[in-house]
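Example (one chain per record):
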Amino acid sequence: MKKLVLLFTVLLFSYPGFSQIDIKNFQVTSPVNQTFTWGGPRFDYDFDIRGDYGYDEIKLSVYYESITFDNLVGLIRWNREGDYDLNFPSYFTKEMWVNVAYRWDNRSFTTSPLKKFYLVVEYQGSSRTFSYTIPDTDSDNDGVFDSQDDCPNIAGPSSNNGCPLGNPDLQFVYNSIAIFSECSSCSNSLSFLGSGIHILSQQSGSIIIQGLIENTGDGSAGNNKIKAYLSSNTNIDNNDTELVITNSENVNPISGNSSDGFAFTIFGNNIPYGVSFGTYYLIVKVDGENIINEENENNNTFYFRLRYRESLFLMSYPKTIYSLDNSYRIKINNEKEEKAAFHTIQDGLYIIQDSEGDKAKVIKQ
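Predicted structure:
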């Protein structure tokens, strides 16, 4: 039984996780203050990538200011034909460029200082989001920042090019948060979850939570930790149960007006046995130990509803295991066949459906 549990507890490892999306240092390399329209100059960017992606496609979408269809800069389906073995044993800087996507209103955008760009990376059914803010510098040495604003109207303990710094302000980027659980009908996007309730099983279950943390303040935020709690309401108090976080609770330093990704896993077998099965709120908090002096201390959390149940394996036989694209499908009649199936199938995301029609998501790595 131990082998089977291990197969399912790698279920929902974090990003970078089962899909090995290991990317960092996304940046726009097109010149500052360049204007782009459809058919205009190409848009350049790069990032550092590591990992073995095989001959599979990696989808790269770049957005301007917000991750919406109207603000799509361009899309690349890297290695769509499977011509290359994308294997990077160590971090490799990949330079990319894209023709700007068509807009019916011929709307333009400019790489002006403080404008933000997002890179959404999709691979094997999973995704990660990265952001980059065009720096605000005195590139022409005239004593004025490129944004035409000498100094923000703030006060602070230190200075940057002669301007005082304010405090940091950490918060989660709500529309970047993705949740992957055993609930097959739940939206992975927190923005579209609505009344959906994610599922975590005590036996052999786990859940991934990933997204972006943004420092909207001017001061830099140092190292801190993410905390997660099971709660009967949407507020953290002494009656809540703190959860063990894996891979990883640590948040790296984030400079002012920039962001960084986070990803972690919660395993059901790490929840104390005294916690009753039922429906809770799962609350996630950045700067969980309250060690950073922030501009706003009341915007550090997000939450969603979670059903905590006993076991993933209460589903009745016969079961059907199939991939999201239906390229793999197998019917299993007992536990022995189930173990054999998960021993032979390729790594990836699968759905298990039992004879009653109940479904669960399973990830094998």
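Caption: Residues 335-344 form the longest helix (10 residues).
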